[in-house]
Automatic annotation (TrEMBL):
Pfam families: TPR_19. The keyword Magnesium does not apply. This is Tetratricopeptide repeat protein. InterPro entries: CellSynth/LPSAsmb/PSIAsmb, TPR-like_helical_dom_sf, TPR_rpt. TPR repeats lie at residues 350-383, 422-455. SMART domains: TPR. Keywords: Repeat, TPR repeat.
Length: 780
């Protein structure tokens, strides 16, 4: 195999590494960015449709995704801290506006940049939402708390006819066994039972009592109070539909006697129900109804008379409602405004500071964002959401997973929070994984799977970490890996099959890999996910000269499966097929595969492709085509940058064509190129006094130099014989042995003299002491 072929073979051998580059985190990030930009574009296009009265506006606005991908690849290569979600939209818009196509629309440059800026802003939000995170730990949801009995009592105290019942707690007499309790079961009795049961979170018993109470003849305010209890119970149980139904029934019973303060309280509860129901159902319209309720609540209150804490929580509810939608810049501005007002009213409230920080983050005010998270943790060091937020700051903004671990580690200590929001385990495990603390990562992931056994991102991360551990401690983790993968994928999938086969190959379990592969259906065997394993497997067989086995493995690959994402593997496929077929002496088919690489464009350079084809044509003795391809390779690199592979190929091609003069030129060029490395090879075996040094183990480069030297010596002999043939033509076979030897020496002598002269110059330049001794022993 030539030097070029060997280099390309090494590339193919690294197929798994290439696959990882195709599927790595940066590539996935760029795909997510483009996906987010497309979503943001569609949202904005629908908005523009209403302004331009064009029903299909979104069909005429799109991104040049290939160029966009190249832009972000370059951006990440130049700045590893670049973040799509943190960059200023107006700055990015200037860079990428020319990749946005606006068909049939005429905008000035300034107008187009303005449109792109708005698209980027919307897309940044889509990007954050698409991250593998839950909304709680990311801070998109309200920091929701259950309604307490004190709030209910305080609200109902605003109903005049209920006040007496609140002031008189019903005292039930203690009875002896067998005695019946003589109690009047009036409204006051049921009302106080509701308070007792609600306070103890016995919601079912409380609802039963309420239903019994409705059998009484009740006043309007008494009905309102019971339905308010029902509303609070359903709200605490996250049953927003029933909570909304009951609170609307409360409103239906309002009359002139109901105070504005009580109505304001009801509006606040209704706003919370609408807002949280909207978030749960991803319905921004419901959230906006909730916002309207909170604003009406403020209008009914005398801001000057109200306590700061009450107003602060209303502002907080408005801020969190806006935080859950953020469809426009106005939403962000309102969100920040209300959180800042809430912060003024509730300066020690950690939840307010945390959500204000999140709002600043969406407005790309990252210094203020981080400051708020720090203040929140100073006020409440164990606030789960703030710990997760700071972990994200250090992982995403600062690229410091070690520091992020400190915050995520504290977050996962709160088991009650992690049961509902297990992504803290995911990010902690990911940080450990990124700094190669794989055993700590797997411990964290397993802990997360204890509380969330079906959490998709944790399961996916576990498969990646276990796969990495296989390369460190195969005997320990291979059984666990197989057990986990078979449990995760009861039926084989393309992804699971590729991981299992790769695991066996990495651990040199070839027979087991063959047996497992045979159990997969054809669709999985031909999937692109298995290609890296096939390449690695086949090339290992080629290195052992087992071309038949390599050929059988590569036959599993369906060339029709190559798409744009993994196009580099198409070239690898044809190259390995060429290697296998060459080893099986099917050289005509070798040429076919290499011609495909040349015709379709390649990950290989044009020089490499032409050199490969030249080598292939030499093997089938098509010397003219070999000459053409080697000559094209040389014309690309230029005379001054030619190499031994090209010149040796040209030499062999001209020998085959029986063209003496160009063959001699190529041989001279080979001598020129080899003289320096060969002289260095000899010098390395002698000391300055000309005596031989102790022999050392032969390196690959030294072995290659010796091989090239033999090629030149053989080439001198071949060229001399060709010149003799030209002189005597058919009569050469009639020459006696001594006559042939004499003629060969006549033509070898100038070639030997040229080689010796080149070595003299080279050796003198290297080491004059060694040169004389060396040249006296050169025999060609």
């Amino acid at each position: 195999m030539s030097g070029i072929s060997g280099a390309i073979g090494a590339f193919v051998k690294g197929g798994t590494a290439l696959w990882n580059r195709v599927k790595n985190a940066q590539t996935e990030t760029i795909k997510l960015i483009i996906k987010s930009l497309n979503k943001g574009t569609m949202h904005y296009a629908r908005y523009l449709s209403t302004k331009t009265e064009q029903d299909e506006f979104e069909k005429t606005i799109y991104w040049e995704e290939k160029k966009l991908k190249q832009y972000f690849e370059k951006k990440y290569s130049e700045d590893r801290h670049f973040g799509f979600h943190t960059v200023e939209a107006k700055d990015l818009a200037k860079d990428i506006e020319h990749y946005l196509i606006l068909s049939n629309h005429h905008f000035t440059q300034e107008e187009k940049i303005s449109h792109v800026e708005k698209i980027i802003f919307q897309s940044q939000r889509e990007y954050i939402i698409e991250q593998p995170n839950d909304k709680k730990s990311l801070g998109l949801l309200q920091l929701r708390t259950d309604i307490k009995i004190e709030e209910i009592v305080q609200s109902l105290s605003l109903l005049t006819t209920i006040q007496e019942g609140l002031l008189q707690q019903l005292q039930l007499p203690r009875l002896e066994d067998g005695q019946e309790m003589d109690v009047i079961k009036d409204f006051r009795y049921y009302y106080n039972l509701c308070i007792n049961f609600f306070e103890k979170n016995k919601y079912s018993e409380c609802l039963t009592v309420i239903q019994e109470a409705f059998n009484l003849e009740l006043s309007t305010e008494q009905c309102i109070s019971l339905k308010f209890f029902e509303t609070s119970i359903y709200y605490n149980q996250f049953n927003y539909d029933l909570a909304l139904e009951r609170i609307l029934e409360v409103e239906d019973k309002f009359d002139r006697e109901i105070s504005d303060k009580f109505i304001a309280n009801i509006l606040g509860h209704k706003g919370s129900i609408y807002s949280e129901k909207g978030v749960k159902e991803n319905n921004s319209g419901l959230v906006r109804i909730g916002i309207q309720c909170f604003e009406e609540q403020l209008n009914l209150l005398d801001v000057e008379e109200e306590q700061n804490s009450k107003l602060g929580y209303i502002y907080y509810n408005l801020g969190t409602s806006y935080l859950s939608i953020l469809e426009t810049q106005n939403d962000i501005d309102c969100c920040i405004k209300y959180f800042e007002l809430a912060h003024e009213m509730l300066p020690e409230n950690a939840e307010v500071m945390k959500n204000l920080g999140t709002a600043y983050g969406y407005n790309l005010q990252h210094e203020q964002e981080i400051e708020m998270y720090e203040l929140a943790l100073a006020a409440k060091p164990d606030l789960f959401e703030a710990l997760c937020a700071m972990g994200m700051v250090y992982y995403i903004y600062y690229n410091e997973p070690e520091e992020a671990i400190r915050y995520y580690g504290k977050a996962v200590e709160q088991r009650d929070q992690c049961i509902r929001f297990p992504h803290a385990y995911y990010w902690l495990g990911k940080c450990y994984f990124e700094i190669n603390l794989n055993e700590e990562a797997i411990t964290t992931i397993n802990e997360g799977l204890r509380v969330a056994p079906t959490q998709e991102h944790l399961l996916q991360l576990k498969s990646e970490v276990l796969y990495s551990l296989l390369q460190e401690k195969a005997e320990k983790y291979l059984p666990e890996y197989f057990q986990f993968m078979n449990k995760l994928y009861p039926e084989p999938t393309e992804e699971s099959a590729s991981k299992l086969i790769a695991a066996l190959l990495l651990n040199h379990k070839i027979e087991e890999a063959q047996e497992l592969l045979a159990t997969f259906p054809k669709a999985i065997r031909e999937s692109k996910e298995l290609m890296p394993s096939y390449f690695m497997w086949a090339f290992n067989c080629v290195e052992k000269n087992d071309y038949q086995a390599a050929y059988q493995i590569i036959q599993n690959i369906n060339p029709d499966k190559f798409d744009e994402e993994i196009k580099p593997f198409k070239d690898c496929y044809h190259y390995i097929m060429a290697l296998c077929l060459g080893g099986l002496d099917k050289n005509e088919e070798v040429v076919e595969h290499l011609e495909i690489i040349l015709a379709e464009g390649s990950i290989f350079t044009q020089v490499e492709i032409h050199s490969l084809l030249g080598e292939a044509y030499l093997k089938i003795e098509n010397f003219n085509n070999a000459r053409i391809h080697y000559h094209r390779a040389k014309s690309i690199v230029g005379e001054d940058n030619t190499n031994l592979d090209i010149e040796y190929g040209l030499f062999q091609a001209y020998l085959g064509l029986k063209r003496v003069r160009p063959a001699r030129t190529a041989l001279y060029k080979m001598i020129d190129l080899l003289s320096v490395p060969y002289a260095g090879r000899i010098i390395s075996t002698k000391d300055v006094n000309g005596t031989k040094s102790q022999p050392e183990s032969e390196s690959e480069s030294e072995s290659n130099t010796d091989t090239r030297m033999l090629e030149i010596i053989s080439g001198i002999q071949q060229l001399a014989y060709l010149e003799v043939e030209h002189k005597f033509k058919e009569a050469v076979s009639a020459l006696r042995e001594e006559e042939l030897a004499k003629e060969l020496e006549r033509y070898r002598e100038p070639l030997n003299r040229y080689f010796t002269s080149k070595l003299i110059v080279t050796m003198v330049n290297f080491n004059a002491i060694v040169a004389e001794d060396f040249l006296s022993n050169v025999k060609i």
